[in-house]
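Q: Given only this backbone (202 positions), what sequence would you predict?
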């Protein structure tokens, strides 16, 4: 149970990563991914990388610069411009639904204008899911200068697009619906220099 704990990616740049095991029974037509990050990186870095054998950027949350997030589904992406962080934790949630192609992005409990992405697409179920690196091949192909350095916590993946109430609940760490990946019952494997530590502050 990782309640009130964090993954600390100590080195910059880093070859370390964390493999997440999710029980995906079938392909995803909708999903939401949420996580909290704390970093002083200004270079590009990957936050959440979900690759299939057919598509290395099947789901990717990527931060190319401090004032921008990129949200990929099936190799295509939309960009969300954000205020540059003030050296604090940033909570992001990104959701997508195949039927409408609507991509939602929430930062620190607030929604950004919705965008269109990959309408009618299906996200493959046989996936390598990593924190800390951006996959350019299934489970590998890392570029050290896209690696994450800093702290990550509260990682979740759902097979639904969460409602606005649940998006806000995720930001506030309130009770959440059952998830494919849930921070408090995470099945994971650390590869390299990543340390699990208590969170320094709420």
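A: Predicted residues:
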């Amino acid at each position: 149970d990782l309640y009130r704990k964090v993954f600390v990616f100590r080195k910059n740049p880093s070859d370390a990563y964390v493999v997440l095991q999710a029980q995906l029974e079938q392909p995803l037509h909708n999903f939401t991914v949420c996580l909290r990050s704390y970093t002083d990186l200004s270079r590009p870095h990957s936050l959440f990388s979900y690759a299939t054998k057919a598509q290395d950027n099947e789901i990717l949350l990527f931060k190319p610069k401090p004032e921008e997030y990129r949200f990929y589904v099936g190799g295509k992406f939309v960009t969300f411009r954000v205020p540059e962080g003030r050296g604090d934790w940033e909570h992001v949630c990104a959701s997508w639904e195949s039927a409408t192609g609507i991509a939602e992005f929430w930062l620190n409990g607030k929604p950004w204008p919705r965008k269109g992405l990959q309408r009618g697409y299906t996200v493959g179920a046989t996936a390598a899911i990593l924190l800390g690196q951006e996959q350019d091949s299934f489970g590998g192909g890392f570029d050290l200068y896209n690696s994450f350095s800093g702290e990550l916590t509260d990682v979740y993946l759902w097979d639904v697009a969460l409602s606005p109430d649940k998006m806000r609940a995720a930001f506030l760490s309130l009770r959440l619906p059952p998830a494919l990946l849930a921070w408090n019952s995470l099945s994971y494997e650390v590869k390299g220099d990543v340390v699990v530590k208590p969170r320094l502050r709420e």
